[in-house]
Amino acid sequence: MSFSICTRAGLFACLLTLTAWTPAALSKGQSPHDVEVQQLAAIINRALESNPEIEAAQAAVDAAQARLVGAALPLNNPELELEAERTDISTHTLGISQTIDWYDKQDALEQAMQAELNAARARVAALRLTKSAELLNALGRVSTHHEITTLSKRRTGILERFARLAEQRHASGDIPQAEMELARLSLAEAVMQHASNGAELIQARSDFFSLSGQIPGSGVKFPDRLPAALPHTSDDEALARNHPQVQTAQQMAGAARQQIHAADQARKADPTFGLRAGREASENLVALTFSIPLQIRNDFRSTVDAAQAEALQAEQEAHQAYRNLLARLMSARKRYKLVADAWSLWVSLGRTSLQQRIDLLETQWQAGEMSTTDYLLQVQQTLDTQIAGVRLHGDLWDAWVEWLNASGTLDAWLNKTSKEQ
Question: Using CB atoms within 10 A of its CB, is residue 287 exposed (0-12), middle (13-18) or buried (19+)?
Fold first, then answer.
């Protein structure tokens, strides 16, 4: 039970105070926090520039732009007709005809294509936000696992030294065989745990490379100083409505509504007027022509019905996207408060020195004031506390990124420092 309590208490411990100080930046009056955020922004922006999914979404924008340009052009081209017949009487005619956009289908199509372009641009903005959050989370996992691996390596080193001392004391008859074997088993466990932590670090780096195409450096850190509390706002609904994902869903619903009008106009028959001139034998021929499709067998109403159903589907999906985002936003706010309160409690209690604690325990063991079992238990608890603190700080970073993502303010926070330069 005591071990469980100490482990849980370790949720309030962490030694993640390393910061990426750069003399050039600090000489301009930037705080270490601003430097860290600026470095993160550079990494994220560079990764976004070469992200295949974003490039694909941008290509969809270019395609929508091309369709809009095409929709601004006239729908129907004139038709030229040439006819020659040579029998007993030679006949030659030349005609030209033009289908008239009687119902202004071009304008309806142009509006539909403009709505599709707006939706495609909104999808790019939403995708950039999603990828930025994924990259920041991946960087957070890399930093967290790097710190944990460092601590587990230190634990292995401490237990290696302790195992050697235990063997020496056993050889001199100070401790029994069982205590020496316990020291060896503790070392073996530490080696296995270090290997497991190293594997997690490798996986975290691999995940980041998969997202960004970059190999994260060992010096990449996420800021240690994050807000103790989120800005108070009673208008979470406005944040949800303005979120890029909700805006994308609304733009898609608007595009679907525009398709109703375009489909209704497209089904209507347009008249075709023509002029034909020629010569038959010795006589000149001049004729005016008029034609229009008779939509008796098929009035194409089904295309309008389908567009209406698709618009209803898009509207309902937009409503659901808003609900999901609002619930996610409220959850992110509560989660951040929970984790930030725990982190603030640890900071307020103060951070003890890991090495001082280990040295004190070893001194007590060497003096015979502590058994080998108690020494190993307290060393493990001390190191587990530090590792649990690192994980807590990683949870705080995840909660912060999730809040920025859910509120749609990630880009503003990430690029604020660079924009102020």
Answer: exposed
